[in-house]
Amino acid sequence: MTFKPNLLSLIILLIICASCRKNENHEFQTVDFEAFKVDLPKTWRVVDLKGIDSYIKAIVTTDGDTLQFDYGFYSGALEEESPKVYPANLRKIFIERGRDTTGFIFLDKEIISSSDLEPYRKQRLENKIIDGFRASIMTPKKAGTGITGVYFDSLGDDPIGNIQLRFSGNNLKPKNSALFLKSINTIRISRDTTTSK
């Protein structure tokens, strides 16, 4: 006996699928931080923090992940420590000199190039333009482990230096990381960025 779906069962199936998708969608709202605006999920909440030399705030997701932004002259780029990759012939020299080689990677090569490091990096870095400004977006290669964030290195000039924005979170759940990446692409920088907040 073979099953032949009738029109009613197809309609019920479509309704179930549509309601599942509706639950997966998140409503976004524009949050104005004066220095910039960004669309964030409505269920995420903003927490005030006190910065010493910059304007900072935290954003807490519905399930407890935390993001933070730092807007000012000393925000700091999103950087990953370079993997410790060396030619195999150096292993013996390191050991003889008493150097701890824990976490080192030795390759059967005479010279290590930047392309040799790439497989051992934990993060991906992409450069793009967001709202007319150059931005670096960092994402973890392994979901849930590492930094998800964006860094703008020059949003305006001031006698002290360039105004920067770093907005990131560590070890975000994959769902929150994906929502945050959507938010990053909605950032609108205030054009009055000649002084820090």
Given the structure, what is the number of helices?
4
User: What characteristic shape results from the CA principal axes?
Assistant: globular
| Total DSSP E strands | 14
CATH architect. name of the largest domain: 3-Layer(aba) Sandwich
How are helices and strands ordered from N to C?
A: HEEEEEEHEHEEEEEEHE
Biggest sheet record: 7 strands, antiparallel
Protein name: Lipoprotein
Organism: Nibribacter koreensis
Can you tell me about this structure?
Helix content is 20%, strand content 36%. The protein has 197 residues and is α+β, with helices and mostly antiparallel strands. It folds into two domains: 24-75 and 122-189, Mog1/PsbP, alpha/beta/alpha sandwich (Protein Transport Mog1p, Chain A, 3-Layer(aba) Sandwich), CATH 3.40.1000.10; 85-118, no CATH class. The chain is globular. 22% of the residues are buried. It comes from Nibribacter koreensis. This is Lipoprotein.
What would a concise description of this structure say?
It is built from four helices and 14 strands. The mean pLDDT is 85. 20% of the residues lie in helices and 36% in strands.
Keywords:
alpha+beta; Protein Transport Mog1p, Chain A; three-stranded antiparallel β-sheet
Question: Secondary structure elements and their pairing?
Answer:
Blueprint: H1 7-24, E1 28-32, E2 36-41, E3 45-48, E4 54-60, E5 66-72, E6 85-87, H2 91-96, E7 105-107, H3 114-117, E8 123-130, E9 133-140, E10 147-152, E11 157-158, E12 161-162, E13 164-170, H4 174-184, E14 188-189
Parallel strand pairs: 6-7
Antiparallel strand pairs: 1-2, 2-14, 3-4, 4-5, 5-13, 8-9, 9-10, 10-13, 11-12
